[in-house]
């Protein structure tokens, strides 16, 4: 763990921390793994090696996987993890007190120039950063799961952020091949989960009123909307679906969307009968395959998709 | 135009009709093209040939493109189009009177066993089928655009449908490689556009309250959610994101989604300031590329994605 390359400290080595470790190692960083639970960091190494190997197989790794894996090291203390690190990614449990304590500790022991990002998916920084003296250099950097296969990272500044922190974390994420975006306000769910909630709430409601069977609903997405959205966002899609572009689309179809909006039921509690029906449908299709095997299959499919997008120049740049 | 193969009549040869012609020809059907506007059917032939050629290049056509193209013929009258056709796909303009007149005519001149599907994206059958004597064999079969690259087809029975019509059209669509789903009620927007509206309305609102820049919003989709949704639907995704599957996910996160649901603003009219900002962002990125070139690029990307999904066994079966 020496030399001129950048170093990242991964604090918390569950699924998300492991993915981050792979993402940083892939980009040539030195990676230090630390977890407050004894043995947890060491236990993550095999999964990280396997992840790097899978990336190599998919043509998504420029160097040899086993060489890249050598840049990942397990350390014994939080202090060792952050020594010499220019960036720290926190992946502690999703509880405000825990996050606050971890950030207080990190702020005390890191180099004053280091930036500290949190993987939190539900808590804006204002929930756990108020008491942290160096809160100007702390920020939410929320990945999707798994981070090394889902490029998007939601950067959410807290009320006390330094503008330079936003800029530097955005550039840093770009430099390791992620697709950072900035959420300019501390809104509930940030942006990704807000869009996901809009779809999921409507999907469950449609099953609840028996407008569609669960497996058909999934088909609408994976054999329809999702194909487009893997390649272009909603605004890009609209821009291409009217002769004169986006505004033309808004003029032609705005009233229709407003009307459909009134028909959407996104705020209702999920009806239990719908949940039961969806569970039965999933059960019938799971075919007793263990979750780990299903996840591995999903990850391989994501890698194929990323490799395909890279080939045609539609990857995150 | 003879032999034992199935024959489809394509009524209306705009973008949607052309895509349907490609989809049926690809599956080995004889295709008759007719359009009420003189010359329109003939004008569509080059685009159909090109579409078949592109499919061949992408490895998505089993036979030789030029041989397949020979199964597509332009005819002079609606009667010639439907003669011997077991299925008719109507792609007339989106106006109730026009659809009604076309269905009245088709019902009169088709073989009594033929099934008649409408490509309408906005009108349930009850809007234009009430006066059609053979309305039991008429049904909405709404494709996504372009039909030959977006497998999903929304089958929407009217109040007067014959159950056998639903079953036969579903099987027919499966047999040509599409992904048919059944919308069991005549709800506004069917299902695909309801899910799309949930996303678009929320996306525009988020830009409207300056929570995110338009190009970042697109990134959240194409470098995040959309990658998953190209491979699996929302219920499949939920099933895989909690240790005990779908119901476990619903228990863990239901309250969060309900709370996010309350924060969603899906029924508001689109704020003009948001539309202006999105248009400016799109303008800056369009780079003066003609719409036709952008569409061709989108279609090639879709073909790569379909070929990739086919390779890993995630295509519509």
In short:
Two copies of one chain form a homodimer. Helix content of chain A is 51%, strand content 11%.
* SS field, number of helical segments of chain A: 12
Question: How are helices and strands ordered from N to C of chain A?
Answer: EHEHHEHEHEEEHEHHHHHH
Largest interface: A-B, 105 and 104 residues
Strands in their spatial order, largest beta sheet of chain A: 3-2-1-4-5-6-7-8
Q: What's the helical proportion of residues of chain A?
A: 40-55%
Oligomeric state of the chains in view? homodimer
Number of strands of chain A: 8
Protein traits:
homodimer, 317 residues, 8-stranded mixed sheet, 8 strands
Provide an overview of this structure.
Two copies of one chain form a homodimer. The first copy, chain A, contains twelve helices and eight strands. Helix content of chain A is 51%, strand content 11%. The longest helix of chain A is centred in the last third of the chain and has 21 residues. Chain A has an eight-stranded mixed beta sheet with strand order 3-2-1-4-5-6-7-8, with helices on both faces. By secondary structure, chain A is an alpha/beta fold. In chain A, helix 1 crosses helix 2, helix 7 crosses helix 11 and helix 9 packs across helix 10. At the A-B interface, strand 8, helix 7, helix 8, helix 9 and helix 10 of A face strand 8, helix 7, helix 8, helix 9 and helix 10 of B.
